[in-house]
Amino acid sequence: MKITFILPGFSRFPVGGFKIVYEYANYLVAHGQDVQIIHAMFLPTQPSPKLIDFSKYKLKQNLLRLNIIKPWFKLDGRVQVINKGKIRVNDIPKADRVIATAWETAEFVDKLPEKCGIKYYFIQHYEIWGGKKRVDKTWKLPLKKIVIATWLKDIATGFGEKAYLVPNFVEHKNFYVTKKIEPRNQVISMLYSEHEVKGSSDGFKALKLAKEKYPDLKIEIFGVFEKPKDLPVGATYYRNPSRRQLNEIYNESAIYLFPSLSEGWGLTATEAMACGAALCSTDNGGVNDFGINGKSALISPVSDPVSLFNHIDMLLSDKHLRIKIAKKGVEITDKLTLENSGKSLMRALDIL
């Protein structure tokens, strides 16, 4: 079966939503499917790009061709990849399935002819930063919906739409326990992002409060952006860490702090849990399927750094609570496998 994924452009740095699509592409070709990924940078349903934006895109393309920019994810050689600047309907090949992966691409996929395949909308977040009214319309388009989290399925139901739930997964070959949970030192890790929705400023406030009470606390921050100027005192920052480095960071951590304001699915949260870190998170939607308050996580209201600090304090001062939550997190994430999710995706695509 021929399957086309359409992504909104391509990213030089790791992006969770892209990573999930790439993993599924590898899984599908390994199971006998013919997969093509199209990175569609400028869509006809969007405003025409400014000259500077198009010039930046062409520069990135040339750097990619010259191998100066190196791909951050290793795709199976059987996956065909097309990087397209100004894409048109005629650029999309004949296929059996065509899958939009964001609200912008959903508008475009809706306009494709039948020869491009049965149309799907792979929904990884409620992307209302694109403009709520316009985004909401994409949920009502005549595309078959696949969602990655229960809270997104609930939104689809609210729109009167059917949606197939395919939960995300953990790369267990890369993220697993290598250091015993019980004797871990007072180490907290966190993802930093410049995007406000990730709640990094709230996370930093909570960490600064924790550092005041626990002077020996070790803080490890990672991300794709440059080292932030307001990094908590004494914190270590890792820019673009490899999966091996991330696994080491998670395994060093007694606690993983996840302060997002809104998440489709907390990918780094599940990675950290799989490595034995106790999850301290906000109630951001994206942890609902695995972060059970008081059992596999401690959950705070969004935009409440004091509450986050209080939960950090609970975990640092109560070793038994931390160990209990960490072990439950490992147990839950052990079930979040690519094989399970891949089979669910194939059923959603009516392949199995």
Automatic annotation (TrEMBL):
Gene3D superfamilies membership: 3.40.50.11090, Glycogen Phosphorylase B
Gene Ontology MF terms in the entry: glycosyltransferase activity
InterPro entries, alphabetized: Glyco_trans_1
Glycosyl transferase family domain residues: 194-329
GO terms (BP aspect): lipopolysaccharide biosynthetic process
Domain of life, source organism: Bacteria
CDD domains from the UniProt entry: GT4_PimA-like
Keyword Iron-sulfur: no
Keywords (A to Z) from UniProt: Transferase
Keyword tRNA processing applies: no
One Pfam match: Glycos_transf_1
Family annotation (PANTHER family): GLYCOSYLTRANSFERASE WBBK-RELATED
The protein's name: Glycosyl transferase
